[in-house]
Amino acid sequence: MEHILEEDISKLLEVKRFLQSIIDSIEDQIMVVDREYRILEVNEALLKRLNKPKHEIIGEFCYKVLHDLDRPCNIPNHPCPVQETLKTGKASEALHTHFKGREVTYYRVTSYPIFDAEGVVQHVVEMARDVTKWKKAGEKMHTMQKLAALGELAAGVAHELNNPVAIILGFVDLLIEKTKPDSKEYKMLKSIERQGLNCKKIIENFLSLTTYQVTGEYSADVNANIERVISVLGNILLTKNIIVEKNLEKDLPKVRGDPVNLQHVFINLITNSADAMEGGGVLTISTRLNEPGNRVDILFEDTGHGIKKEYRQRIFDPFFTTKKVGVGTGLGLSVCHCIVSNYGGEITFETVSEEEDSEKKGTTFTVSLPVIPSESE
Ligand SMILES: Nc1ncnc2c1ncn2[C@@H]1O[C@H](COP(=O)(O)OP(=O)(O)O)[C@@H](O)[C@H]1O
Ligand SMILES: [Mg+2]
Q: Is the pTM of this model over 0.90?
């Protein structure tokens, strides 16, 4: 008899260990509380986050342990799913935002009821999952969509400007015909014409760069798009004393990507290089096929001030900028990253900061895009 009892107990213990190992293997943070919010059980993942031994937590109030409060949580914008489940007897869910210094983390918290024989909620299981990665990816997408909308708006404005500029140029032409070439008025009209043509050119270039012309194309000629971007930015770079050197490999295969989006990436990288070369410098743009021949690499090498060590981890973060308010948005690189990874490409950088070596200072960004296999072009 005693023997049988011992066997049963050891079997029960085995089952208990098995169940515990199941909940400990789950990476979501799990906690079971009773109706008074006392913690009855927790898993390893939660202990790890709290950084406390289990015996210090079991039997304590969850609001004390998790939020250091003396009564059940009532934090604005921080609804407690456990309270909800106790009230309604139904599963509940909430998104929690945690701030720790400058860092923000997001948790998706869900709770499930456990009923007694009478159907009354006795316990609540709460599960929390760190969803920071997904949330940030979602926000990035949102930013991209906003930028796309803005681009469309800007393109619309440029398009609207086309007609008035054409009319101005038309009338100027008429007046020029009626004016004596050696008069003061003639010179003025010629000047209006020149500036008008300038406007026309800017509008055309701008239109060619915006979503207005998105063709839904999915293959791009890298060199042609680099040339086009340089032709648009060339003048601005010149006025900033920046020399552009080109090293474009001939007969490159086409890459995956919408030309307009890729131009967007190139413009962002060139603008960043220009910003880093205050007072002038050299920007070398090179293209080449990689060794196995499955990717085209595009390198933007500048002689700017480089990126300080402490910034390197963060430059791709949305809204990270070291520039003055109104100059930088901190969106350039995160948009580049979004676009490039959309096509299965990569964007990397190497840098030597001014502080490290003022002779060799500079940054090289490399965009690497998959080649489109020739039969599917
Ligand atoms: N070529 C570069 N040289 C030096 N710093 C750079 C370069 N490109 C990017 N950075 C750094 O990365 C930051 C983020 O760039 P980005 O996302 O384009 O935003 P923004 O240009 O609006 O600041 C910049 O503020 C700058 O500090
Ligand atoms: Mg930028």
A: no
